[in-house]
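Deliverable D5.2: sample structural annotation.
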Amino acid sequence: MFIALSTFTVANDMAPQIKEAFINRPHLVDNAPGFIRMQVLSPQENPNEIWMMTYWSDEASYTVWYKNHMQESHQNVPKGVRLVPHSTKVRFFEQICE
């Protein structure tokens, strides 16, 4: 299994709107080949920080989706949101066991 972890921190008190956008997301990725599931988390010690983990059967499936659909997947981001500079990170993982 291949896992992509995207993290970012909201700078302008719009974290509740971002969280609501994730709750009401249009599920565009759900039918992508190789997609397994998505989790969105926020650490209790920093509620303005968002972690999005997507689980894929393999890295190639993630890469195809990212290249073809990343822009449309961000179309429902609330207007006016600002992120803490340099807070956006993407990391990739291989699941070893569950």
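Annotation notes: The chain has a mean pLDDT of 91. The domain at 2-94 is CATH 3.30.70.100 (Alpha-Beta Plaits).
The annotation will be released with the project's public dataset once the embargo ends.
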